[in-house]
Amino acid sequence: MNYAIITALFIFSSIQFVSIFGEISLINRALFNFTVNLMQKTAKDDKSAILSPFSVSTSLFMVYLATNGKTKEQLQKILGGTARTSDLRKQFANQIADSAKIKSKKYKLNVANRFCVRKGFPVKDSFKRMLRLYYNETVHEFSFEKRKGFVQGINKWISRKTNKKIKDLIKEDSINKDTNILLMNAIYFKATWKNQFMKAVTKEREFHISEKEKKPLNILLTH
């Protein structure tokens, strides 16, 4: 039996679960299915995991913008189902823009995306324009010979974006002579629970991670 605890950060600004008063859009349905499949893949081993479908999908959308042919068709199906291409682009444009504009005293959200290519690797100007339009980003270059400085720069950028929670996203051995493209993505989210645990009824109890492993954890008691 799999005892993995999967916590997904459902930060899709536009996703709403189906209610008796409305229907879910084609894109949101596709993204919901993507989220479920992503969680199932992550839960294959007996380890806890925290994942953000929003973060992963916005990263994949960069790949979608860069591809053509069958690859683009497959990504279209994953991210948008049978929705029109124009609708898919519009929805992601809104989601990415909304996440970049978020300013709140109650929580903090930073999403970092970066598209990197080996120096000399051909990149179309049309993709560069779309990357600027959707992500306010440019295509960054790296080389195998100068990978040390590149890796240091990427890790400093990620550390800044995640409030120093992620300091080593990549290492020098992440890049070899055959590496042509690197897709970078990270998300930082900090907030308090809407309904926080009351100290008077919070006690330390044993939490069973699996049949053999357990650890002490603060638990809210109802009686």
Automatic annotation (TrEMBL):
CDD domains registered for this protein in UniProt: serpin
Keywords, comma-separated and alphabetical: Membrane, Transmembrane, Transmembrane helix
MF terms in GO: serine-type endopeptidase inhibitor activity
This protein's record includes keyword Nuclease: no
Transmembrane segments: 6-27, 48-67
Annotated ranges, domain Serpin: 36-223
GO cellular component, one term: extracellular space
Family listed: Belongs to the serpin family.
Protein name: SERPIN domain-containing protein
Source organism: Wuchereria bancrofti
